[in-house]
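Re: that chain you flagged

S.,

Sorry for the slow reply, it's been a week of failed gels. I finally had a moment to sit down with the sequence you sent. For the record, here it is as I used it:
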Amino acid sequence: MALAAAVLASGFVLAQEYKVVPLGQNEWKDFTIGKYGGYLVIGTLDNPKTFNHHVAQETSSTDVTGMLHAGLTEVNPITDMVEPGLAKSWEISEDGLVITFYLRQGLQWSDGHPFTADDVVFTFNGVIFNEDVRTDYRDVLLVEDKLPICEKVDDYTVRFTLAAPFRPFLREIGGAIYPAHKLQHLSRVYNPDADPEALNSVWGVDTPPEEIVGMGPFKLKEFIPDQLVVIERNPYYWKVDPAGNKLPYLDGIKYVVAFSLDTIMLKFRNGELDVYAPRPEDIATLKAEAAQKGIKILIDPTKPLFGTTWIAFNQDCPNEKLREYFRMVEFRRAMSHLVDRKSIIENVYLGLGVPQWSPVSMLSPFYYPDVPKYDYDPEAAARLLDQIGLIDRNGDGWRDFPDGTTFEFELNTNVGNTIREQT
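Prediction finished late last night. Pasting the structure tokens below so you have them in one place:
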């Protein structure tokens, strides 16, 4: 389920004027040319845990690191189409197995070092495909259980060879490219004497900002734990607007650490934040204050946001008994039957939500609406649980493992996110 609303404070630089955008796209040419200067101030629920994008596991980290880096391809936020990023173009072989990327020439990292194919090959072979590195991104690129072969053709050409055609490849290959000149010595692919943990711990939150180098529109300026993260304009960023002005327009972005949505809402109402994505219960309050405080409220009830609220069962959890059931499709179907999506949408999202039936967002080009739907049906859930042996064995009203112990598990979510807590 997704909240279909956004709230913008008046007077700040519009979102389309600082986003990382493709050059020359018709959708962007209609926007007003921006003005330079100022910081966008937004709230965040927690401190970043790392500035290492490829090992980050939480949005409090990736919201920041995503602004520091860039990839070979990127997705146009208006059309949702894959477009050139650090690669200016690509060719795909007739059999769909070989994709050759031609890189933009003359680009520089945020420290001024030249960007070349060596950085791309290092990123994939030395980091993403490196089993030492605990990154989820590696699994995304597996095709028939095989990783692509990444090769340097020349200083500005890189070739990937796949085990089989993979339609999402261009979309998925757009992950952050890392600087070989800063990190290559930490990879055992290049340096057998390197510490296996080095690429997992590098760019931690105590790293001096100047040591964190990227190709994104911003670079890290300052991190004050429990208070603030500040990123500033990357002077070497290569993109320009249709008039030839260097992007981004903003001097930077400030992420105010607030730890709860209630606090973020209060800071927004007090004028301390420039933008806020409201909970449904916030909208009436914001509407009442809109004229007085200069708040602009944007609601599109026909189009949910890309993100979803979902439950994931850890199929590799340490508890062997739970792991066995979490891996059973019958158990997961039973759990889906126990989720009253209609009630959640009405009572938590106040009607501003839509039911979700798969991990794929309905805004994704790969969304398929006709997947099996396991509606709210406690009786169907009970039958499925009976079938897999989760029954009440001692008459206390609780279902038990086959060994007689009570079947129970914990649902965890981030503290301070009241939408998730209520759900």
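What I noticed first: The first strand starts at residue 5 and ends at 9.

Talk soon,
D.
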